Amino acid sequence: MAYDFFPAPDGTRLALHSTGTGDPLVCLPGGPTDSAYLGDLGGLTDRHRLIRLDLRGTGRSATPADPASYRCDRMVDDVEALRVHLGLERVNLLAHCAGANLAARYAERHPQRLARLVLATPSTRAVGCEITGEQRLATARLRRGEPWFPPAYAALEAIVAGKGDADAWETVTPFSYGRWDARAQAHHAGESLDPVILTTYGADGAYDPARTREALGRVGVPVLVIAGEVDVVAPQPVVEEFAGMFPAAEVAVQKGAGHFPWLDGPEEFAQVVAGFLGG
Q1: Is residue 81 part of a domain?
Q2: Within a domain: residue 225?
Q3: Residue 257, domain member (yes or no)
Q4: CATH of the domain at 89
Q5: Where are the alpha helices (DSSP H) in the chain?
Q6: Residues 6+ apart with CB under 8 A from 69
Q7: What residues make up the domain containing 253?
Q8: Over its length of 279 residues, how does the chain's per-residue pLDDT go in tens digits?
C-alpha cells in the first residue's frame, strides 16, 4: 500500500492511502476516524484502486489549526481537494456510516463531480431520517439465537429507553457484526474515536437536512445504497428511506450482514459494489 499527502484549502496536510489496481474508487470512512478499518473492502482491490482518505486529525492526516474545521460540512472542501489532487474530472465515491453524511453534503455541493456513489450502511443524520428505538430492537431480535443475545438485548433496551451507560454501549457491540467471532472482536478492538472530532463533526451547522434532501433529488448519477440485514446501527427501513431521496438509487440488502458488510460477507460485498461500478 502506498500513501501520499495533499493540502486541504486551509493548508492542513491530509493523507490518502492507495492500494489495488483498476479504476479509482475514493473511500470515505465513518467514525469520524481514519480509514484503516476499511481494509481492502472485501477484496475490492482486485477490481479497483482504492483511495482511502484519512479524515483531518486522524491517521496520517495532520491536526488542523482550527478545531471547528472538523465539522462535517467543512470537510466537504477536503473531499473536493482530494478529487483535484487526483486529477479526476468525476469521481466514484464510496462512503461508510458517518462518512455517508460527508458524501451527501459533497453530492449536494458538487453533483457534477460525481460519477457513481456507494453508501454502505449509512448514517442518515445529514438527511434527517429518524431511526426509532423499535426499528433497532426489531432488527436486534433477528439475532435472538446467538449466545450473547440476552445481555446485549437488555443493554439495547436500556439505551433505547435513554438509560444506557458506558457498559451498556460496550455490551451491544456484537449487534454491529454479522458474526461475533474473533475477527469481529479484533476489528472492534482496533477502533478508536477522538471525542473532540466526534463532537465537532456533527455540531450545530454541520447539517441542513431540508436543503440536502432537496439537492439529492437533483443528483442524477447512479447510486447504490447497501443495508446489512441485521444492522441495528442503520436498520434497513431507514436505509431504504435514504435511498429514496435520489432519483436513480438502488438498494442492496446483504443477508446476514451487520454494520461492516465487507467483513461479514467479503465476496458478496465486493461483487455487488464492483458490479455496480462496472455498470
Answers
A1: yes
A2: yes
A3: yes
A4: 3.40.50.1820
A5: 72-86, 99-109, 133-140, 149-160, 166-171, 182-189, 195-201, 209-216, 236-243, 261-264, 266-278
A6: 10, 12, 56, 75
A7: 2-137+195-278
A8: 688 999 999 999 999 999 999 999 999 999 999 999 999 999 999 999 999 999 999 999 999 999 999 999 999 999 999 999 999 999 999 999 999 999 999 999 999 999 999 999 999 999 999 999 999 999 999 999 999 999 999 999 999 999 999 999 999 999 999 999 999 999 998 888 899 999 999 999 999 999 999 999 999 999 999 999 999 999 999 999 999 999 999 999 999 999 999 999 999 999 999 999 995
Residue type, 28: L
Q: Nearest to residue 136, comparing CAs of 155, 101, 160?
A: 160
Domain count, the chain: 1
Let me know if residue 72 belongs to a domain: yes
CB 142, CB 174: distance < 8 Å:
no
